Every structure is written in C-alpha cells, then in structure tokens.
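---------- Forwarded message ----------

FYI, see the AI-2E family transporter record below. Original note from H. follows.
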Amino acid sequence: MFVTQHHLRIIFRLIIVLLIFIIIYCFLLLKPIWKPIFTTVMIGLFPFLLSGIIAYLLHPLVEKIEGMGVKRYLAILLIYLLFFGATGYAIYLGIPMIIKQMKEFSEQLPLFVEHYRNWIHQVEASTSKFPDGIQLQIDKRIYDIEQWFNKLIEKSTKAIMNLFDFLFVLLVVPFLSFYMLKDLDVIKKACWYMTPKRWRRNGVLFLDAVNESLGGYIRGQILVCVIIGSAAALSFGIIGIKYPILLGIIIAITNVIPYFGPLIGAFPVVIIALMTSVKLAIIAGIIVFILQFIEGNILSPYIVGKSLHMHPLFIIAALIIGGEAFGIIGMIVSVPILAIIKIAIIHSRDHLIRSRQT
C-alpha cells in the first residue's frame, strides 16, 4: 500500500497538532515558575493595556465626529467627557451600594458557610444507610465539594480586596487614554518606523485583519454584557435576591465567556437564592436562562454581529487552557487571543503562498 502525498499531509498536520499539545502541556507544567513573573509584569502594564483598550473602543466615535468637520482635539474631548463622565457618574452612584452589599455579604458569610455545612451534614445523614463502598465515595465527593467551595470563597474574597488595591492605579487610566487618543497618529508613525521595512506592509495588513475581525466583536460584547448585567441586577432586586448589584456584575463579566459563562454566572446566584428558599432559587435560575436566551437570540446577533468563524472545539479548548492558566481572566481573554492566532496563521499562510508565486 503506497503512502500518497495526501496521506503525508494528514500525518504532518497530526504531528503539528501533537507538538502543539505537548508545548501547551509543558507550558502548564512550568506554571509555578512563569506565573509570578507574568503577574508582576502584568500589574505594571495593566493601566497601559486598559487605557489602550479604552482608546481603541472610543477611536471610531472620535473618527466619526472628526469626519463631521469638528477638530480632532474637540472630538476627543467631547467623547472623552461623555465616556468618563458617564462612567464616573455610574461609579459614583454604584460604589456606595456595592460597598454596602459587600459589607453585608462579608457579615453574612459565616452564616452562609454554616448554612452550607448544615446542608452537607443532612446529605451525609440521608446517605448513611448506603453500602460502605457507596457511602465512602459519597463522603469523598462531599468532602471535595466542600474544599472546592471553601477555596472559592477564599479566592473571591481575595479578588474583591485586590480590586480596591487597583483603584489608585486606575486613576491614571483616563489621562493615559486621553493622550493615546490625542497622539494616535504619532504612535502609529513611531510603530511604523520601529518596524523593519520588509515587515511593514504585512504588519499593516495583519492589524487591519485583526481590527476587522475583533473590533466590532469586542465593542458589541461590552455593550451586550452591560445590558445583560443591568437587566440581571434589576431582576434580582425585584424578586428579592440579596446582593443584586454584585450578582449582576458577576453575570455581566461571565457573559463574555462562551458556553461556560452562563453556568459560571448562574452558580453564585442560585447558591445565594437557596439561602432564602428553593422557590427563589428556581426563579433565579429561570431569569438567568431567559436572559441568556435573549442574549443569544436577539442581542448578540444584532449588536455583536457576525461571529469569529471558529469551530466550537477550538473555542472550548482555548477556554480550558485559559482557565487552567489564568482562571476566569484567562477564560475571558482566551477567545480574542485565539482569534488573533487564527488571523496570524491565515495571514502567514497567505504571505508564504504569495512569496512562492513571486
């Protein structure tokens, strides 16, 4: 049986996929070494990255207003004041309520943990008459769930406290964003001259492709998350779930994560609702389901627009790797990073084809 060129190409691609998985596996094994260094670097770069994202999101609006005949600095000032003014006003109204709910949550946390442990003991008591082998497995699973829940509470509390540590860093973001918008042409020219000549044309084509693919997606996702998070907070407040604003923020953030996001966001909502009643937990679950149905069938198709055209298997793999490496943050940024990698691969392939033809 002869091995055809087609078979060789398939074998070659399988080897490449296998090598990629080996590299990812080794990367995750070395996590204790590179993660502290990466975290330190990201803390220093965080205000610049956030400022760059804000400038990237506001740039199309500035361009539209400038196209109407308004001078660029006036267009920037107008959009800047509207965006940060609205954001600042929302923070001014929301922060006191968020702090109040966080304080109430921290005060109720011991009672919540005790309520959870009593429920665990009831489950253990109801399964005590099972055969020893089954009972041993049930006890092990209950213990694992309890340990996971305790770690979740510890990580959540730590994350909330770290958020307040970043407030002083975030104060410089408006100033950085303003200068990035104002001097965008200067930044482009600097990047152009710093790039080797033979890469300039391909670099511009690559960035244009990334902007076309990700620009509308990111802006649309942010708008959809704000709408879903606000609707969730309002709905939770109406039906009487505690900490509706905090839960609405969680729903908004996790909504960015494809497939797993609704489950991650619904979990704390249902758990907190269970402290009141099973009926309230069911209603909360139904609300989350309705919101996700609206998001998936109405908001995203019209606001986010066309998808990134990636197979669900690749998206799920990216979410798993991102979650394993960086937790929730990794899951949020994994899909955009995957989209950029896809564009880079396609762009490199097209470049190689053009090079061979010439």
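H. also flagged this: The two ends are 37 Å apart (CA to CA).
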